[in-house]
Amino acid sequence: xxALLVILAVIAVILLFVGGFTASLKxxxxxxxxxxxxxxxxxxxxxxxxxxS
Length: 53
Prior knowledge:
single chain, 53 residues, mainly alpha, elongated
């Protein structure tokens, strides 16, 4: 599960940069934001519940 969160965060950052630099791919900015929010929420849930994989 932890590897999945890292992969989601990396993809989110890459899509944020691509979406920010390329005007024609502006929707990638929103996809990156959504993926980043999902990764943060999942990390917070794991931290608050104290469960470890």
